Amino acid sequence: MAPDVTIINMKNMFAFYSSIIVVLSVFSVCTGDVKIVTRPMIIFADDNLYFELIEPEEISYTYKIRPAKGFGRSMTTFKRNIPLVLAEPLHACTSLVNSALIRSHIAFIERGGCSFVTKTINAEEAGAVAVVIMDNDSTNDEKMVDMIGDDTGREVTLPAFFLLGRDGFMIKRALERMDLPGAIINIPINATGIPPNQLNQPPWTLW
User: Fold this and answer.
1) Which residues, 6 or more positions from 168, have their beta carbon under 8 angstroms from its beta carbon?
2) Is 102's pLDDT higher than 90?
3) What parts of the sequence cross the membrane (predicted)?
4) Could you tell me if 117 and 154 are in contact, meaning their C-beta atoms sit under 8 angstroms apart?
């Protein structure tokens, strides 16, 4: 059976974007400029942000996320064409075994099993620059959760975001079916002046 050209191209694209980001990171260290791109972060009145998934194309939509409250830092730079990588283990309650893929990228984690803080710290130790934590209820297509600290006093330096379970399930299922380690995203997107219902939202989720 002939290999799936789409999957091969996606894997090549993932590797290509990863190599670009590594080069940019080295350049940033050399120049002292830690910002990837200078574009303003947009925060809406309802405390939600949005990211744009670029590849794979079949799940290329705009997704709503909610920043953590009480732990982590705000995202102050616009990250373009950055990999969103499935954590291993997905719950991220223990050290991540795929840190080579996570490093300098965004960790994609599932809720449950331990606190949001523990998950974020484990991703940080693996070298992630941010985390997106999807709800473990794959039917949740509307309820945004306010992620809060766990009262342990541990310092968290990464931005952390909550993603609806339905969105997370659809993204995860597509990546696993295509045997991809992650997706390519822009986060946050500049949605100035665009009503949420006019963004390219997933057909399975209604805002």
Assistant:
1) 108, 110, 132, 134, 135, 138
2) yes
3) 14-34
4) yes
Task: Locate the domains of the chain by residue range.
Answer: 5-191
5-191: CATH, from 3.40.30.10, 3.90.470.20, 3.50.30.30, 3.10.450.50: 3.50.30.30
Cβ atoms of 171 and 138 closer than 8 Å: no
User: How much of the chain exceeds pLDDT 70, in percent?
Assistant: 78
> What is the amino acid identity at position 140?
N
The letter for the amino acid at 62 is: T
For residue range 123-164, list pLDDT tens digits in order.
999 999 999 999 999 999 999 999 999 989 999 999 999 999
Residues 42-57: tens digit of each pLDDT: 444 468 999 999 999 9
Write the CA distances from 141 to 5, 181, 198, 205, integer angstroms: 32, 24, 18, 5
- Distant-in-sequence, close-in-space partners of 27: CB < 8 Å, separation ≥ 6: 33
Distance CA 61, CA 11 (A): 19
